[in-house]
Fold:
Amino acid sequence: MKINIVVDNDKCWNLNTVRRLIIHLKKKNISIDNIWVLPNKLSNFTDNQISFWYLRIFGFLVFFKLVLFYILVIINNFLIKIKNFNALGLKYNLKIKYLNSINDKIFLDHLKNKEKKIFLLITNHILKKKIFFQKKNIFINKHSSLLPSYKGLMPYIWTKIYNDKNGITFHLVTNKIDSGRILYQNKINKKFKSMVEFYIYIFQQFPQGLVKAINNLEKKKFKKNIYKKSYYSIPTKRDFRKFKKNGGNIILFLDLFKISKIVG
Structure:
C-alpha cells in the first residue's frame, strides 16, 4: 500500500511528525508515494501573519516561550541533519513536492490519475469541493478532539474552557469540515498542564493511530458518532482569558525540556 502525505511547511511539529511517521509506516509495510508540502496556514493567516496572531492573542510572555521552544526544536533538527522537508526526502529517498496552494494544477493532475490513492492531510488548507467527487481518491485527516465535538481549530483550548474530554480522531475528509466518517478514535484520560504538552502527546500517538485508521478503512470498519456535535474557530483574546481563568496554559517553561519527545 502507498499513501501520499499533504503537509504544511512547519519545521517544528509537522517535520518531526512526518519523520517519525515514515519510520513507523515502513515497519508496517506501508510506503509513501509523495510528500506534498504547502505554505503554513492558520485560518486566513499565512507565514508571518500567524506569528503576529499568536503574539496579539496570547501576549508577549507566551509568544516568547513558543519562539524559544521552536528555536530549540530547529537546533535539534540541524543536529540530526533533517532541517527541512528536502533533507527528509533525501534521507529516506522520498519525493518531496512543494505547492503554493492545495489546488495547484500539479496536485490536481495527480488526483486525476486512474490509480486509487490514499492521502493523509496534515494541513489547514481547504480542498476544492469537486475533488471529493473523485471516488478513487481517499483523504484521511487527524483531529485532536473527539469528533464530532470541537470541530475546527485549536480544540484543546475549547475543551479546557468547557471542562470537556480530550481525544484524537482519524476520519475521512468530505466537503464539510471535520465531518467525515470516523476510522479511529481514542479518548484521552490523561490530564495535561499545557496545550504544548497535549500536542506532544497527540503527535507521539499519531503514527499508531494512523495505522489503525488505515486498517479500519480496509475492513470498512467505521465508528459511530457518540459525542455531541460542536464547532469552534480560532480563539479571540476574550476566549483566551476564559481559557486561562479555567486553569489553561498554552506553554510552560517546563515544556522547553520536553523537545526530545518531538525530535527523538
Summary: The radius of gyration is 18 Å. The longest helix spans residues 195-218. The mean pLDDT is 93. Residues 2-263 form a domain with the Rossmann fold fold (CATH 3.40.50.170).
